[in-house]
Amino acid sequence: MDKLGISGRFEIVPWGRAQLFTQTQADSCFFSAVRTPESEALYQWVGPLSTEYVQLFSINPAQPKFNQLSDAAKLRIGGQTTDAFTDYGVSKGLKIQRIAEIPVNLSMLQLGRIDLWLAGSVGGPYIAAQKGMTIFPVATSVDVFELWLACSLELPEQAVHQLNNALQLSKQDGTLDAILQRYR
Prior knowledge:
Layout: H1 15-24, E1 29-34, E2 44-58, E3 77-80, H2 84-91, E4 96-99, H3 102-111, E5 116-120, H4 123-130, E6 136-151, H5 157-172, H6 175-181
Parallel strand pairs: 3-4, 3-5
Antiparallel strand pairs: 1-6, 2-5, 2-6
């Protein structure tokens, strides 16, 4: 953002709040968003920035692995409200208990109130590590998802162009890869 002369602040907020804020407040964006047909017209898009798979995670390293997500359909699974990854899990036959905030899902996993947690292959382990937890993937989606920056429809089109151009430059010069490596 510094290279573009754009100032801003970053906040970590529950997923639904980030979406609502971006839809109702000019000059706002949130990351990361999966670009779906349902969300296409709600935002202006910058990206894609990265990719992830949907995974099911356990805190038990001995938890049996599954060939596909749907093989875990009989287990208690936690996911996030208003989340494309959770919607994807439901489309694969999983019954998912939707929770607004990720830390609650992680606590439920630790307390045995859910058996598995559904999250992104990069974001899930990163968030768990931030909470001092180690999680183990037990199933991975076949599909890969692009992650985008979703921006308010009120954000000037020129700013969206600038952000997309800066992203392309950061891909070309290796800056984006260097940033993403911090989270893998």
